[in-house]
Amino acid sequence: MDNIKELADMIRECGRIVFFGGAGVSTESGVKDYRSRDGLYNTVHEYGVSPEEILSHTFFFNKTDVFYDFFKKYFIIEVEPNAAHKALAKLEEMGKLSAVITQNIDGLHQRAGSKNVIELHGTVEEFYCAKCGIKGDFEKIIDEIKSDKVPMCSKCGAVMKPKVVLYEEPLYEGVPEKAAETIANADMLIVGGTSLAVYPAASFVRYFRGKYIVIINKTETDFDSHANLVFRDKIGEVFDAVMKELQKEQ
Prior knowledge:
The protein has 250 residues and is an alpha/beta fold. Helix content is 38%, strand content 16%. A 6-stranded parallel β-sheet has the order 3-2-1-6-7-8, sandwiched between helices. Helix 7 packs parallel to helix 11. The longest helix is centred in the N-terminal third of the chain and has 12 residues. It is elongated, with a radius of gyration of 19 Å.
């Protein structure tokens, strides 16, 4: 793997590193990628519509039972943080990484130990009532979904909704501003596991005014030409290698 030493030297030099990540970070933990070719094909074959349509505001309220059937298959799975999650938590502990900004909703960064995580699209680890807003009992709701039941509010009887940003919905209040400000104040931006094709999330990288941009993604992105380093390797392998390099004497 080329350029690992150069990446390690950049990390040593910087103290306000921000990581911006997407689905590729979590797929290495076994999280299913419903937007991949296989995932898209399977969804359309089974449900007759695209995953984007299922995960939309309109579909959630019109066909809630189908939404939760899809949710159970793709989001209620046993997974653990991988080498990338763990390395990012360690970099934060070392005082190098100031924040993780993620498009993922699985909570794996927090489980790995990261403290400052900005979740652009929310999290599947919280539910609230779509009508009265009361927070739900997570374990109880998960058990209901596993039993093919639509979780309902114990207070008003309305449907419980995962705290995620669905298609047709805006990002949660304050989140875009916080993400933009965090990237604008960074001296190094590492983009990993995302093609930067999903908007508005991908637009945040344009706020970066720092010194180094590093992209770790298996396919090309529109920002490759702006990067100081580009890796086409697995993100977990890159972070595993760079952490070993950082442990060496300078």
